[in-house]
Amino acid sequence: MAELGKGVSAGKIASNVQKKLTRAQEKVLQKLGKADETKDEQFEQCVQNFNKQLTEGSKLQKDLRTYLASVKAMHDASKKLTECLQEIYEPDWPGRDDTNKLAENNDLLWTDYHQKLVDQALLTMDTYLGQFPDIKSRIAKRGRKLVDYDSARHHFESLQNAKKKDDTKIAKPVSLLEKAAPQWCQGKIQAHLVAQTNLLRNQAEEELLKSQKVFEEMNADLQEELPSLWNSRVGFYVNTFQSIAGLEENFHKEMSKLHQNLNEVMTNLESHQGKPSTNAFTVKAQPRKKDNLFSRLRLKRSSDPSPAKTNKTTASPPDGPPAASAEPKTTNHAAEEPVVSPTSAATAAFFQDTPTVTVSKSPSQPSESAATEIEVKAPEKDANQSSSLPAVVVETFPATVNGTVESAPPKTNMPPGYVYKVRAQHDYSSTDSDELNLKAGEVVLVTQFENPEEQDEGWLMGIKESDWLQNKDFEQHRGVFPENFTEKYQ
What we know:
The protein is an alpha+beta fold. The chain folds into three domains: 22-272, Substrate Binding Domain Of Dnak, Chain:A, Domain 2 (Up-down Bundle); 309-328 and 355-360 and 372-379 and 389-395, no CATH class; 418-488, SH3 type barrels. Helix content is 56%, strand content 11%. It has a five-stranded antiparallel sheet. Strands 4-5-6 form a three-stranded antiparallel sheet, with no helix packed on it. A two-stranded antiparallel ribbon has the order 1-2. Strand 8 (400-401) and strand 9 (404-405) form a beta hairpin. The protein is elongated, with a radius of gyration of 49 Å. The two termini are 86 Å apart.
């Protein structure tokens, strides 16, 4: 027999091709419902568990390799950091030999940690997954042998069903050869056909038994191995993560000792160079370019010509006479009263061409605050008159209820002008009466400045959240503080 390729005979190739054709034909018949298929639900469940276990193991292996790559990157970064310390550590400083020894131990510790992770986790993981390809191949082969077994069973059954037809052939010749043969020879021909049919049936039976034996042997092995492999996953996961946790715990213990030794070296260096207080690095606030904010506000209000105790709206043209004052009455009834009362002819003449300013108050209950509304109406202008209007300065004050000045509560449970929250990262001691004392960890509610021009660069206005929650007194507890001492978090 001729040999082809790499020692593969032509007969072997023909046999493989014939098997593939037979299997394909059998699968088509099974899909069409013309041939029954052997089913094993228990084995199918084992195969599903196997595929799930393989997927989980592959993902764990991938993540473990990523973890090891991160450990290697941390090792390189830590090594560069210790090398930098060695470079900047001057020869005459105390503890130089200690820093060199710490750097060496640090490198050895990282190397040992990485190597143990590879030996006790990654290699074990590779061994665990190494058994899956062979079992997967055997599962696929078992599927092919099952198709061969079904095909052989169906072929044998078809021969069995054709036995009655063979008996009919013995009683009545059907072929031309049988009809043309002499009477004495017809019996021999029929006997030959029966013998040939029996031979085919025997061969089919032998093929059925052979394929059945091969399939059952493979099926029995897999039925035993797959559940055992599925149950082994728990112990493997436990051992793997226990090894990782133990190695990491020991690593951090040893690294903690190195960090403690390094801290002692730095403390000795600080003590040798001078007092800790002179060498300590502190966070400093940006210097304020302006005076005390509250002093500026008091100065501005004291220079305001309108009394602080009255509700007044001042209207003054750029170059005209002084505007008259408007003083609303304190009442609990809704009213709309003119507030412009000129006291001289000149002033009256002026207000004929100036906007009309009115103040109206909405009714309020004793427990509520009255809101003051100011309306400015411009007079009608002739075509020949200038379109410019005098400037109107409007200043609002809290309305009064029963002679008492009250302010409307904020819409939310936050101070007026609330913007966001910050948390103090360092302690800060105030240097002026308008500044807040801060402790690290305290939360401050940042608010807007009444006048943005009053804000110093690098400084914020606000009130401590604890002070606001306790008494809601914004005016008494607000203050400014350096922005670089805090961090925005809400």
